[in-house]
Design the sequence.
């Protein structure tokens, strides 16, 4: 499989169905009021391992031949993909090797350990992650499963939007955050396949706006060193995700760090659910009116809820 | 209506149906593993106003005659009933007067204001609340709606268990926290009406164990001054709730403050949802094996999620 298509997402949905959780779609009058439209939140923070990433990882692991699988899987990740791959590997009964940046939140490290994976720590740069993963691969013979620039991963992530469109007919627009682009790519493939296409807009932190700049330029622009509270979005696009984004995504908008922290707290307080800073990025796009919302029905993919409760962003000054 | 019966809960369910949210039932492999059984969490932290209390308040307000309603409603509450009554009154378009203890969490005070109610503050003792409410009643002519010792409130609260039993057939046991006893009374009326009765056990903090002692004595024992982190459970039983509890509840167990804080955090981290300390009380009863759980299917009512995010119990030392 090279570039995934809609049929790959349908196959992924069948393949992962016995293992994933069909997550709820929630609404909130407080959110609707602030956004000025009807918003439907697909709660992947209630997915197994606490994030949508389990969909893609599960699809990738369950797609391996027995011979491939027996060698185990490797990845580098800021955390959620690592947990997801570790659980998927544990379900299939194969080894998982995880390269994580040293500044990954403690709870994510503990969770990966809890699923029985072997961890190798490295610097937090993209380069250090890739180099360390290379070394693990040559040491173990395991297969590398990229967190997003992989067609099976993209197809798996698209199943969240597929469930959302099935459950909420008549959506005008689906919003998702953009990190490496796996989720928005899978989402766009789903939204543009139906006979009546649904708009797809990506949201990104201003402090990590490589996808925004790449989308506007029509070509992959590598980020400068990024520094956003939305730790899940610090990664840059890949050659596969940039292509899908340029072909199928309608727009990418950016939001400030201040808004991300404010709206993360808003969702915690008003919807009583824990979302990561990354999830607040599309919420801020709505609340800061970066998108035309009036009269629309908007779907929003809440990507995950794995947060270090000892280091909440609105309490940074005390930590 | 004096002592409510099952038919009152059926009527309440119909009456409040257009206004309440049908909340999801969630499961977690982490919770099941720790409890040693199958646990089904009825998520009233996702109810409107963030707590089950809206069910009872809505039933009470919608049951008033037009003449009664026009005078408005009054209550004293540590917070959740106050929000619930304020929203119910706002929906019916009548005034709400709320007496709140001065140490009520800021977010609860703000929410009550947000629903348009008038607030009068008082000391945090039961006596001060009652005296202040009396004064408001004589000043305004509004009707007092007790937070729990009221048959319409009890009937409304019972609708949560009714939904839970409908959605999860074959439950062996339903667990709920006990504060004033409104929720456990309504829950017991539902669980003991069916042809195949379901066990009902209440959970209470050791530091506010008046219901435990009253249940064992078979008569109302007023608490000493209570001091538990579970602020929603600081109230004592009423003459109506003690009767129903003695008639229909199978047991009441108590748990430590340490366990409450530990298990509140466990649910936040493992289920990515925000629960109040009160909700963790029955969770602790499971995790500390205060109840025989092996092989059972247990329903657990998660009562609310209104927490002051600037004062989390595991961060008390910093605040």
Sequence:
């Amino acid at each position: 499989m090279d570039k995934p298509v809609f049929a790959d997402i349908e196959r992924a949905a069948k393949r992962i169905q016995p293992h994933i959780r069909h997550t709820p779609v929630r609404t909130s009058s407080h959110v609707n009021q602030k956004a000025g439209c009807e918003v439907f939140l697909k709660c992947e923070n209630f997915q197994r391992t606490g994030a949508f990433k389990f969909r893609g990882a599960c699809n990738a692991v369950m797609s391996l031949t027995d011979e491939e699988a027996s060698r185990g899987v490797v990845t580098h990740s800021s955390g959620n993909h690592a947990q997801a791959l570790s659980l998927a590997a544990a379900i299939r009964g194969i080894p998982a090797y995880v390269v994580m940046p040293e500044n990954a939140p403690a709870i994510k490290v503990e969770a990966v350990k809890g699923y029985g994976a072997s961890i190798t720590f490295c610097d937090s740069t993209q380069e250090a992650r890739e180099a360390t993963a290379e070394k693990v691969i040559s040491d173990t013979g395991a297969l590398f499963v990229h967190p997003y620039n992989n067609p099976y991963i993209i197809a798996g992530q698209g199943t969240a939007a597929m469930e959302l469109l099935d459950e909420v007919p008549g959506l005008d627009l689906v919003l998702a955050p953009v990190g490496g682009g796996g989720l928005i790519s899978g989402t766009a493939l789903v939204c543009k396949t139906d006979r009546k296409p649904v708009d797809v807009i990506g949201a990104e932190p201003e402090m990590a706006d490589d996808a925004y700049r790449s989308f506007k330029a029509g070509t992959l622009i590598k980020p400068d060193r990024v520094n956003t509270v939305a730790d899940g979005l610090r990664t840059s696009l890949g050659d596969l995700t940039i292509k899908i984004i340029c072909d199928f995504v309608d727009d990418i908008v950016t939001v400030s760090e201040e808004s991300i922290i404010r709206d993360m707290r808003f969702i915690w307080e008003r919807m009583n659910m824990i979302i990561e800073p990354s999830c607040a990025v599309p919420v801020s796009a709505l609340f800061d009116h970066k998108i035309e919302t009036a009269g629309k029905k908007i779907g929003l993919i809440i990507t995950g809820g794995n947060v270090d409760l000892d280091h909440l962003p609105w309490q940074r000054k005390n930590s």
Q: What stands out?
A: The beta strands of chain A are 25-26, 38-43, 73-76, 96-101, 118-122, 143-144, 173-177, 199-205, 251-255, 297-302. Chain A has 13 helices and ten strands. Chain A touches chain B through 25 residues (CB under 8 Å). The CA atoms of residues 102 and 121 of chain A lie 6 Å apart.
